[in-house]
Amino acid sequence: MDKRLQHIITLRENGQLEEANQLMVALVQEQPENGYYQFQCAWTYDSLGKEKDAVPHYEKAIQLGLDPEILVDAYLGLGSTYRTLGQYEQSKRIFEKALSEFPEAEHLKVFYAMTLYNLSEHSKAMETLLNIVIQTTNHKEIKDYSKAIKFYSDKLDQTWE
Q1: Do 51 and 129 fall within a single domain?
Q2: CB atoms inside a 10 Å sphere around CB 65
Q3: Are residues 147 and 79 in the same domain?
Q4: Contact 78, 108 (CB under 8 A)
């Protein structure tokens, strides 16, 4: 990683968000075809609460191509940003694309469940979250009941007599 980008990331991590954003925007203007720079620029906008400004940078980063470990975070950033902007269908589309490429990315599924909630797909949101819980927990009692949780995860509206 070059020293300028490392400096910008350090500024962002230390809460110097405006300065980090200004420097990142300048870096992207110098190298607009650098997908990683576009991703970092989107992140600085998100950190400032300027979600609308982040979107085109996430989109450009994904379009330009990123290493898989960065791409999954770019999808998460874009999907989450669409959700916070109230663009729930776009958010859902991004998360579903991301999950098709990264089906084991449990952190994506959490944000996807939030989008499903916003779309009033409550049953699917709960099913997603319950499955994440049983896949990722180390809690003994939850593990003990994982078969029951899994069984009921897609039957939350069903009753038995």
Answers
A1: no
A2: 10
A3: no
A4: no
pTM above 0.70, yes or no: yes
What tens digit of pLDDT does each residue of 17-72 get? 999 999 999 999 999 999 999 999 999 999 999 999 999 999 999 999 999 999 99
- Enclosing domain of residue 76: 3-120
If asked whether residues 73 and 112 sit together in one domain, one would say yes
Residues 68, 142 share a domain = no
Cα angle value 13/20/42 (rounded, 5°):
90
pLDDT in tens, 83-105: 999 999 999 999 999 999 999 99
End-to-end alpha-carbon separation of the chain, Å?
Answer: 62
82 and 28 both lie in a single domain: yes
DSSP assignment of 131-157 equals: HHHHHH---HHHHHTHHHHHHHTT-TT
